[in-house]
From TrEMBL:
Superkingdom as given in the UniProt entry: Bacteria
Name this protein carries in UniProt: Fe2+ transport system protein A
Matching SMART domains: FeoA
Record bears the keyword Iron: yes
Organism of derivation: Anaerostipes hadrus
Residue spans crossing the bilayer: none
A molecular-function term among this protein's GO annotations: transition metal ion binding
Pfam families: FeoA (PF04023)
SUPFAM superfamilies: C-terminal domain of transcriptional repressors
Record keywords, A-Z: Iron
Ferrous iron transporter FeoA-like domain boundaries: 1-73
Amino acid sequence: MTLGDAAVGSTVIVAKIDGDGAYKRRIMDMGITKGSEIFIRKVAPLGDPVEITVRGYELSVRKNDAQCVLVKEA
């Protein structure tokens, strides 16, 4: 399952980040790294962006970025 597919109010753990080097680095610089726990706060009406809580701070992630983060249930 991807971060974009996760249900609102659920907590997930990052399993893998897909993408090329620079793209992957940008995602990781936001604090989304393998093994980190993410809480899905809310999703905009049209599905873009997804608001999450990661490492104690709130972050909005575009739908395209969220589809590249593979997660599993916590």
